[in-house]
Amino acid sequence: MSRLYAGEGPDGWRWSWIAESEGDAAGAMTAYPARLSEPFNPDDPAAERLAHLAAFQALTPRSGLHVSRLGILEPFRRQGLARALLAKTEEVARRESADLISLFVWADNAPARGLYESLGFGV
User: Fold this and answer.
1) CA separation, residue 82 to residues 36, 45, 72, 88, 105 (Å)
2) Which residue in 31, 115, 93 sits closest to 68, CA to CA?
3) How do residues 4-54 score in pLDDT, each as one tens digit?
4) How far from 64 is each of 2, 42, 54, CA to CA, in Å?
5) DSSP secondary structure of 85-123
6) Which of 111, 102, 31, 28 is closest to 61 using CA atoms?
C-alpha cells in the first residue's frame, strides 16, 4: 500500500488534503489531474484499480482536474470547510494547467449539490 499512496498516481498523498477545525480533523478531499486516471504502465500498483475508470476517462478531458473524494464530518459542516477544500482545487488546477474541474455527486445529495451549484459547477 505504501508504494501505491507514495506514488504519483491518483491515489498518491500528493493529491489529498485534510480540513481541520481547531486542531481536529474535520474532513478530507482528493483531487487529481484526470490524466492520472490511466495507469503509467501495466505494472503500476494502481493499474487494476484504475481499470473501472474507462467511462470516466471518456467523459473527462485529460487536461482536467477531478475531485474524487470530498467529505466533511457532521459536527463540522456548514463552517466553510468544503468551500476551503474546493478552493484548493482551483490552486491545484492552476498549478497543473488544468482547464476544468470535475466531480460526481449523488442526485439525492441536495446539500452537496447546492454547494457545488453555488460555486459554479453544473450539477
Assistant:
1) 23, 30, 7, 10, 14
2) 31
3) 555 666 666 678 889 999 999 999 998 888 877 665 566 766 666 666 666
4) 26, 23, 15
5) HHHHHHHHHHHTT-S-EEE---TT-HHHHHHHHHTT---
6) 102
Provide the whole-model pTM.
0.75
Q: How is 25-57 classified by DSSP, letter by letter? A: EEEEEEEEEGGGGS-SSTT-TTHHHHGGGHHHH
Residue 93 C-alpha cell reads as: 488546477
Of residues 57 and 91, more confidence is placed in: 91
Structure confidence by residue, pLDDT tens digits, 55-69: 666 676 778 888 988
Neighbour count for residue 20 (Cβ, 10 Å): 13
Q: What span, in angstroms and rounded, lies between the C-alpha atoms of 50 and 15?
A: 16
C-alpha span between 123 and 120 (Å, rounded): 9
